[in-house]
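Pasting as-is:
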Amino acid sequence: MKFIETLALGALTLAISANGAPLASQDWALKKRNAASLTLPANCLKQNNIGVGWLPDDDNGYISIDTITNTTGPACFYGLYSHFGADLSVSNSDILGDKLSDVKNSGAIAVLSMMPFSVSLSGVTTEVAAQVALVVKEYTDQGITVLLRFAHEFNYYTTSGMFHGTSTDFKTAWINIYNAVKSNPKVKMFWSPNNTQNTGSLAEWWPGDDTVDVVGIDAYKTQSTDTFDSFYQEFYQAYSASKNLPFVIAETGTINDSYKAEWLKELASQSQSKYSNYVGFSWFEYNKPSEGDFRVVTGPIDYAKQVLTGMGNNKAASTKSYSTESASHSPTATVGGNQGAKSTAATSQTTTETPPNSTATALKSIKDSISSMQNALESIQSSIAKLESK
């Protein structure tokens, strides 16, 4: 225990400046912005150290995430969509109330896709951004970590007419949102374009290294030649590996029943040496009559049960190298939102976990201790930020 205590003390020391003062807000922001900064809930479903999450169907009535997790075990991520305008009235009904309660009960990280549908990107002013920050704070005040996926798939929605504005408007809006939430240590800004065959085309949409905490790209498998590498490798190298940022797939799936099991397997069995920043993925568990049936748990066939090992076991698979956070909000329920879908990948073998030896057990205890210290420090930093704002 002496060794573990020493390491924990070292972790605390890292959070204190040379003169004994707490980290300055800019230093804390830098701490949030690296590949080791995103922790998965301790008991959520993991495969090969990859976190598994869901976007429960919200197009066909109110469906709680426990409709899925009663079968799979607790989710690592819970995805919700919010369509908002300048007054955020729609946003409140989309993601607050019962849905906030469901996320808290689920124990999952909330992936909030905040979509400016009835306000242009240029209309996302500092005042609107401040309102977004207040909505997100409703989550973090409940101890929930939030990945704030503002105006996701911007490269698609600005061409389809759902979002209105240019890449410059997007970047200005993004920075306004970032400035509104940057003092909240439990919020991470999640930059998430739509699948593209030209990764270089995304450069004009990049808002700056100092304003992004997590990156990912949405892609859906539509043909047998779609693979994890063909969808994600180039993007991963350009925006995750080169910038040392966590990589999360916020939504993916397929409507082709013959691809569902193999795509789930490939998503959950990527090499940690090749994709060391890959934290996890969320499956689009929707049945959309206009597009097709994406479901792999709640549909006619439970493909997830065929592929994901340890389902129903809260400690399924091992702890992610990013470490795992103690569940300050316990596992049980959750809900989805309104969205469309697009394109993604193929086979691989799921890795099973070997029983931990004494060294592995000691290392896990160390990671848990450090994670607890990080959570405590986040609370301290949040309190400091509140005092500074007065």
